């Protein structure tokens, strides 16, 4: 019976080593190769706050300079590292029916100097706040789901301001792009990179953009994209709004189905879909309006759908349900991996921090599949090992035992020396102006 409770710690370590060796090949010198490994290990650690100081202390460095150099000044291409992560995900989680999920998340920030920051609506806060916004691409398959790519949203107030761009190190090639345009670029990159996928899903910000839908049809990617109740579509009775279509449906049009497993049970809703033959274009395929009705409140949600081939209702419902997987990824990366804890104002540093968080999350997701694929690894009375639980186990069993105890004393000395220098500087400066 004890064998059933064993974990795959050695296989997790081998998987981590393989990913870090692949990423490490992007660095010409051994120092950044070691540091990037230590940096990702620090992201996986249960540190109360994650920044270059705490990660350097966790790694046993003699100061934060090396980690700050890795994020801000060292020579490496974060886009190529994300390509490595995408290939890793394709190998470990890839499936012919893979789903690409697009969504943005916001990080609340103070001041006006952090790249991309302005007062704008943040879905994370649910209101207008001073924040950064970034569009993320997630990959979901029957094996798991993880973030794979990202694009920072640069508002016009930044894109059209040469001084702010220069101060934040925004490349000249970066121009203003809407969030759907950023999502399209991320999807184009994933498809060109060979990530196996068949579907795309996203919320109203993406479903309301006709250019994105056209681009997906050109890729022959099916989609289930949320739209507003006022979204207009061509029908046999003329152009109608989504809400009008729903109001005209008979009671027999609705079917009760689950959009997937939830922590508290199956996520049942009432669903209906309407064929839209008038929406056909040069890409062929089938168009639908998918409608979801809350069983308790009767609240409606609407989705524009397309597939190069006919599919049953339950297939569209499944794709719609996978949209929530990216929210789980945001929660896991913010609560456990420090996605929103970066303290970097410049373009390059922001992308590097976020890229390494994505790498850490992809590793955890892939490692979790090693456990769920083993018949004996999930005995009765236990759920499968989650990403959050695997992060705790990996640190306790693999990372922590390798750390010398002297590191704690070394960093205590370093912090106190730094604080002494800062205190002396403050008193010296005060003495110049005070009697």
From TrEMBL:
InterPro entries: IS701-like, IS701-like_DDE_dom, RNaseH-like_sf
Domain Transposase IS701-like DDE, chain residue ranges per copy: 27-233
One Pfam family from the record: DDE_5
Domain of life: Bacteria
PANTHER family assigned: TRANSPOSASE
Protein name in the entry: Transposase
Organism: Virgisporangium aliadipatigenens
């Amino acid at each position: 019976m004890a064998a059933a409770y064993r974990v795959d710690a050695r296989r997790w370590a081998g998987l981590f080593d393989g990913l870090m060796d692949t990423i490490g090949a992007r660095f010409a010198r051994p120092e950044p190769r070691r540091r990037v490994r230590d940096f990702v290990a620090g992201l996986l650690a249960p540190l109360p706050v994650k920044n270059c100081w705490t990660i350097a202390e966790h790694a046993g460095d003699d100061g934060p300079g090396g980690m700050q150099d890795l994020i801000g000044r060292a020579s490496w291409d974060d886009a190529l590292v994300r390509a490595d992560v995408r290939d890793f995900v394709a190998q470990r989680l890839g499936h012919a029916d893979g789903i690409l999920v697009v969504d943005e998340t916001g990080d609340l920030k103070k001041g006006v100097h952090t790249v991309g920051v302005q007062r704008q609506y943040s879905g994370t806060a649910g209101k207008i706040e001073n924040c950064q916004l970034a569009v993320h691409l997630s990959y979901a398959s029957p094996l798991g789901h993880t973030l794979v790519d990202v694009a920072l949203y640069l508002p016009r107030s930044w894109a059209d301001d040469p001084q702010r761009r220069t101060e934040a190190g925004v490349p000249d090639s970066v121009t203003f792009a809407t969030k759907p345009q950023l999502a399209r670029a991320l999807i184009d990159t994933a498809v060109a990179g060979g990530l196996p996928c068949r579907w795309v899903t996203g919320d109203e910000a993406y479903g309301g953009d006709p250019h994105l839908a056209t681009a997906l049809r050109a890729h022959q990617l099916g989609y289930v994209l949320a739209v507003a109740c006022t979204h207009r579509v061509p029908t046999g009775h003329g152009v109608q709004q989504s809400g009008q279509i729903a109001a005209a449906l008979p009671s027999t049009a609705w079917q009760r189905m689950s959009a997937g497993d939830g922590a508290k049970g199956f996520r049942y809703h009432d669903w209906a879909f309407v064929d839209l033959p008038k929406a056909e274009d040069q890409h062929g395929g089938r168009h639908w309006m998918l409608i979801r009705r809350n069983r308790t409140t009767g609240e409606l949600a609407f989705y524009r759908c397309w597939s190069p081939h006919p599919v049953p209702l339950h297939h569209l419902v499944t794709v719609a349900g996978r949209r929530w997987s990216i929210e789980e990824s945001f929660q896991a990366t913010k609560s456990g991996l420090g996605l929103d804890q970066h303290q970097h104002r410049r373009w390059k540093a922001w992308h590097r921090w976020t890229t390494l968080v994505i790498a850490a999350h992809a590793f955890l997701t892939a490692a979790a599949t090693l456990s769920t694929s083993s018949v004996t690894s999930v005995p009765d009375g236990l759920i499968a090992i989650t990403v959050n639980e695997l992060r705790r186990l990996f640190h306790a069993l693999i990372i922590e035992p390798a750390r010398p105890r002297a590191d704690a004393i070394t960093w205590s000395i370093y912090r106190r020396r730094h604080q002494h220098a800062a205190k002396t500087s403050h008193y010296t400066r005060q003495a110049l102006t005070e009697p």
